[in-house]
Structures are given as structure tokens and as C-alpha cells.
Amino acid sequence: MKAYAGALIAELEKNSDLLKDKKLASVYIGGGTPSLMDHRDIAGILKTIDSVTAICEDTEVSMEMNPGTVGMAEDGCPAEDKIKYLLEAGVNRISLGLQSANDNELRALGRIHSFDDLKRSYDLLRECGVAEINLDIMTSIPYQTKKSLQHTLDTLISLNPEHISAYSLIIEDGTPFGKTGADRLHLPNEDEAYELDCHTVSFLEDEGYERYEISNYAKREQDRDHRCRHNLRYWDRKDYLGVGVSAASLIGDHRYTNTPDINEYMKEPGKVRSEDRTLNEAEAMEEFMFLGLRKTEGVSKDDFRNEFGKSVEEVYAKVLEKYISEGLLIDTNGWIRLTGRGLDISNRILADFLF
Q1: Residue 6 half-sphere exposure, CB side, CA atoms within 13 Å?
Q2: Measured on CA atoms in the order 167, 249, 29, 160, is the torsion positive or negative?
Q3: Residue ranges per domain, the chain?
Q4: Which of 158, 187, 198, 229 is least buried, going by the fewest C-beta atoms within 10 A?
Q5: What's the CATH architecture for 279-355?
């Protein structure tokens, strides 16, 4: 783990020209289980970032933590000391994977934590002064019913996080779930899954969480924006630099992804890439639309024209006309956005913005 931290630092230093004189909106430490790393290594990574660019007082610095590993690390540091050290190093936002408040569902998902583990981790983070916490939950998971989902939602609200991500389980070929087969996983059927998703949306909104993206919700507070700045930059196609195994970057229209092979990566961090290309105009337009329409505010018609030199209607007239007539898209006040029904079937709609 320490050698990997050194490789990340080496890649950051190699990319110092990209970061120099830039003010960072966000830093995201995630992918895998970064909470297993030595806290001093994480601090070293943040120090390196700060040495080549500016981590400012208002920079969002998020870190993912697995509830089953908050108190585990190579260094054997007590969990409370580790969290305080990370906060001093600059981390100011933590994302925890709750997934479910029902232990039988967590076991079915293969999670290493119980709900009690999550609760202890959450309480400790609060006691140590973490002011911004995201909790992930999942719908359409094995054994889930409306009653068990309601228990998870009620528990979630009682914890009072600033941000919530609610994802629907997707079975991918080649994964353990994919190999098992959906019929043997005790999954909700299609109609039940739709009902669970709709219930989640309405419940969270009723409890004061604003849905600002298909799967993401933030507390509504006039004096504070709890939306995830890092995710918003991704959906807005702003520049971002990823370092590490399989890390993706977008600089202008240059998109590249590091090798997924850790041995290749460790030899020369950031050199071997699984993808490395410059997007053409059509591909950039596609991304502008299918990423931007994930946000509930939608996409700005002025921004589209400014970026591509033509109106969105010139490029997507037929698609826009089709879905506006079906009540799935709205064109209003210079913005195009999905309706509530449109968000429910967003995958089908967003696919039509691909040339």
C-alpha cells in the first residue's frame, strides 16, 4: 500500500504542469478502499497536490470509506486518531457505503460490514468533527421489499447526512451476481423495482433532500450547498485529472484512462493507458447532452452554443421534438431538462443523444 501511495505521488508530480496555477474545486480520494491506507500516506498525497496547485479553504476534499474498514489500516492507528489526522491534512467530506440498514440484505450483497459497523463509523466521524457526510444506499437488491426499504430510508433520515446517493442495483455479465443469475438472487421484479425507486425519490424529497441528479440528493439549506462539487464538475464536462490504476482524465477534449494492470502501473505510473484519444465534435456533443441531462436542472442552451458554435436545436431537433411531445423533456427559460417521468426512464432517452 505504501509503494502504491508513492506511485500516486510520482504521477502527480509528473502532471504538475497541468495543475500549476490552477485553483482546485475538488479532490476525490476514492475507488477501492482508500481508508485502508496509512493516514500519513494520504496526507502525503494531499501535500503533494497542494505543492503543485492550490488546495484552498473552500476546496471540497472527499474521501470514500468502507464502514467495515474505518478502524483498519496498515499503520494500526486508532480510528479516532486517524480521522482527526485526515481532517487536519485537509479531508473535509466523507462518503460511506451504507447500502442497506438490513443485515440480511448486506450479507446478500457480499458486504463486509453490518449496520452496527456503519452506525459506529458514522457516529465516530461526527464526534471527530466531520461536517459533510454522504451515505450511499441501493434499491432493487436481493431480498428487498418495500417494508425493508422503508426501514433503510427511515434509518437513513435518522442519521441526518448532508448528502445521499441512491443507486439501483444493475446486474452485469461476468460479475458474481451475473454468473448466479437474476432468477436465483431473490430480486424484486421489474414492476416492484420501479415502485421501490419511485418511493425512494418521493420519500427523500419529502424529507428535505433535493434531487439534483438522477441518483443524488442534497439537503436543502439556503446558506449552504451540500451538492457534491466533484460530481457536478464531471457532469458539466469540466477538466479533471485522475491518478492511479484505471483512473480517468478529461483535459479539454482529451480523454485518457490509466491501465487497469497494477503491475504495469507501478513500473511507470501514468504512462501506460487503456484509452487515450481526443474526442471529435460529435463525441463531445454526445457527452455534453447525456452527462448534462443527468442533472435535474438539465443543460444550458447558451452553454451548448458557446461550446460548439451552433444551437442544440440544429443538432438534436428530432430527438428534442420527440421527447418534448411525449412529456419526457422540457424546454424552458433557456434550459432543456428531463421531466420526472423522463428521469425514471433516462437510460432510454439519453441513448438517443448518441449519433
Answers
A1: 6
A2: negative
A3: 2-234, 244-275, 279-355
A4: 158
A5: Orthogonal Bundle (1.10)
Q: Tell me how far apart the alpha carbons of residues 8 and 23 are, in angstroms, rounded to a whole number.
A: 20
Q: To which CATH superfamily is domain 2-234 assigned? A: Aldolase class I (3.20.20.70)
Nearest 5 degrees, angle CA 228-CA 117-CA 82?
A: 65
Could you report the per-residue pLDDT of 24-79, keeping only the tens digit for each?
A: 999 999 987 887 888 899 999 999 999 989 898 899 999 999 887 776 555 567 88
Cell numbers 443538432 correspond to 315
State the chain's mean pLDDT as an integer. 92
Residue given cell 452506525 in the structure block? 119
The alpha carbon torsion through 105, 107, 112, 118 (nearest 10 deg) reads: 30
- DSSP letter string over 147-196? HHHHHHHHHHHHH--SEEEEEE--PPTTSHHHHH-GGGTT---HHHHHHH
Angle, alpha carbons 290-295-298 (nearest 5°): 75
